[in-house]
Amino acid sequence: MEHPHRPVVIIEDHVDHIDELLDVLHRQWPELLPRLTVMCLDERGLDTQAALERWTSSFPELRVVASMDPSDPQRQQELPAEALQELPACARVVRGLLAPRGVLLQDIQLETLSFVPDDRCWESIDLASMVRGKYPSSRAPRCNFMSNKRVFHARFAADMEDAGFSFKDVLDKDELETTLVPRLARLLRKAFPLELERTGRARSEWLTADAEDRQRVDEELDLVLWEDRPGRLGLAGVGVDGGLVEMASDGQEALGWRALVKARLRGLPGIRTRELGEAIAPEHAERAEQLQKASNLVNRMRSRLRGGKDALLNTNGHYCLADERSVGRVRRRPRSPGSAPNASIS
């Protein structure tokens, strides 16, 4: 099952505003949509229900929270009525959606929140402040805002500063076409520098560099390669005997692990025994020496794993990881929106 928290939550009070935001993101950074939850605060009704169905139909991996009857509980969630009436209730909903270190982007003017006075719309920043306070300070989300008010009076500025925010955190709605994606990309690059490929998932998962994420991944997978540090490869997971093993990233064993994990993640049968021998044996080695080198390396690799031969198999001329073993690989994320995903696993 996908982790319930997502890196980005956007809060808006009208469906047409959300339409505009999704249009910008779809054109400029479609890879973000599966990592986004939209919290729509518009009133319950036919228009809201129709918008919900339109969004989840147009963007199949988007998650939406709104005042409606969910037709797809995996991607649609009903917004509790008290979330529109009580600040703590609204903050609890957002906390349940947003990943630690994530980005909360909300409209300054949220007209449907009854706990925000009509004549002091900027007090909606109290919602962001309360949400932020629900995380450990070291893993608090970044809160940014949107507004179509070009000029803010002094009282608004003071309130923002009192809540720990700055006008630098406010995006002008008239300029979202040029500012939205660069802002989100910068914040998310810093917050989630890593990505995890894993068996059973079509899409990679963004990770923080925090110990909490590392521990969670190591506990969820039988075998995971950590390639988050230059020149080093870490071998971890519940199927690794004795816990984390570190090695040079350019060594023969690291080459073997990367090839095995690549094959498993790509649905390939494994590494041909002959190809592994050719890769690690001296240049002019005979076939027998190549196969012996490959066998010695695989035996050393098996010694790292719980289950040994049951975990790393020799089947039909291929070395491969057992199908029942869950496998993953963590690397640095590509640097910019629209970049091609890590295509090679070598």
Write a compact overview of the structure shown.
By secondary structure, this protein is α/β, with parallel strands linked by helices. The protein has helices at 15-28, 46-58, 87-95, 125-132, 154-162, 176-191, 211-220, 252-265, 273-280, 287-302, and strands at 6-12, 36-40, 63-66, 76-78, 98-107, 142-147, 170-172, 194-198, 205-207, 223-226, 232-236, 245-248, 271-272, 312-315, 318-321, 327-332.
Give the tags.
Rossmann fold; disordered C terminus; 16 strands; 6-stranded mixed beta sheet; alpha/beta; 2 domains
Span between N and C termini? 28 Å
Query: Which CATH architecture of the largest domain is right?
Result: 3-Layer(aba) Sandwich
CATH homologous superfamily caption of the largest domain: Response regulator
Fraction of residues in β-strands: 15-25%
The SS-based structural class is alpha/beta
The portion of residues assigned to helices is 25-40%
Identify the CATH class of the largest domain: Alpha Beta
Q: What is the oligomeric state here? A: single chain
Computed over alpha carbons, the radius of gyration is 24 Å
| Topology-level CATH name of the largest domain | Rossmann fold
Sequence of strands across the biggest β-sheet: 4-3-2-1-5-6-7
Draw up the topology in text.
Elements: E1 6-12, H1 15-28, E2 36-40, H2 46-58, E3 63-66, E4 76-78, H3 87-95, E5 98-107, H4 125-132, E6 142-147, H5 154-162, E7 170-172, H6 176-191, E8 194-198, E9 205-207, H7 211-220, E10 223-226, E11 232-236, E12 245-248, H8 252-265, E13 271-272, H9 273-280, H10 287-302, E14 312-315, E15 318-321, E16 327-332
Parallel strand pairs: 1-2, 1-5, 2-3, 3-4, 5-6, 6-7, 10-16
Antiparallel strand pairs: 8-9, 8-16, 10-11, 11-12, 13-15, 14-15
Helix pairs in contact: 1-6, 3-4, 8-10, 9-10
